[in-house]
Write a structure and sequence with these properties.
By secondary structure, the protein is an alpha+beta fold. The protein contains 3 helices and 2 strands. A hairpin with a 6-residue loop joins strand 1 and strand 2 (83-88). Helix 1 crosses helix 3 and helix 2 packs across helix 3. It is globular, with a radius of gyration of 16 Å.
């Protein structure tokens, strides 16, 4: 008998909600960060390696109502052509 894993079995992997939580938690301090910096922080703190594109997708998710309608800003980092991001907290 083969013990090959089926494509349809549940796998132990981070869920989208978990990655969203990681990114939103890190960005909650309002500091500007580049995607690779977020990837490094997530790898160090949660032992999960994710791609830059996954991080930017999670930031876009943060703008959606079901993920909190966060105000995610982006700008070109000074001296670079790459974007950096921050989440601005709304004052009540």
């Amino acid at each position: 008998m083969s013990t090959q894993q089926s494509l349809f079995e549940e796998r132990a992997a981070p869920t989208v909600g978990t990655l969203n939580a990681f990114v939103l938690d890190i960005m909650s301090d309002g500091r500007w960060r580049m995607p690779y910096e977020l990837c490094d922080i997530i790898l160090r703190t949660h032992k999960v390696r994710i791609s830059d594109s996954s991080v930017t997708a999670r930031l876009r998710d943060g703008r959606k109502a079901k993920f909190g309608s966060h105000n995610v800003e982006k700008r070109i980092r000074e001296g670079s052509r790459a974007y950096e991001y921050r989440i601005v907290r709304e004052e009540l």
